[in-house]
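User: Can you predict the 3D structure of Lipoprotein? Sequence below.
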Amino acid sequence: MKTYFVAAVIGCTLAFAGCQSQPEAPIDPKAQKKVYSGILPCADCSGIHTTLILYRDQYDTPTRFELSEEYMSGSTVKLNVVERGEWTSHKYQEGVSQEDVYTINPEDDDARRQYIKDAINAVEQLDSSGNRIQSNLNYRLLSK
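Assistant: Sure. Here are the predicted structure tokens for Lipoprotein:
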């Protein structure tokens, strides 16, 4: 009798487990990883070669980032810093257009940085208040 009971419990468990389904969403292979790169201005070096990689899951939801910064002295790297963490995306209304804003380290006030997607193939670094940097210098990273 115990054998039939155990078999029935196992059978029911397998039947219920088979009924669960995962939501299906189209997988966009281009949304998995986006790489932006460029040389940003530096106050005490010749430039910061910056590479920002934004990762998304199969449902196109932001997951993690990797930011690599090489502080240059002429053509030589003085310092190489790699940072990893979480990032978020939200819409920003600018005039009549809506732009995507990417925030890396959204939970850390000291490490938070923001970039606005200002073209199909570029993001622009924003200041610490989330505003465009008013400068003649280039704060854009281009998509690779």
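Residues 110 and 121 are 28 Å apart (CA to CA). The first strand starts at residue 33 and ends at 40.
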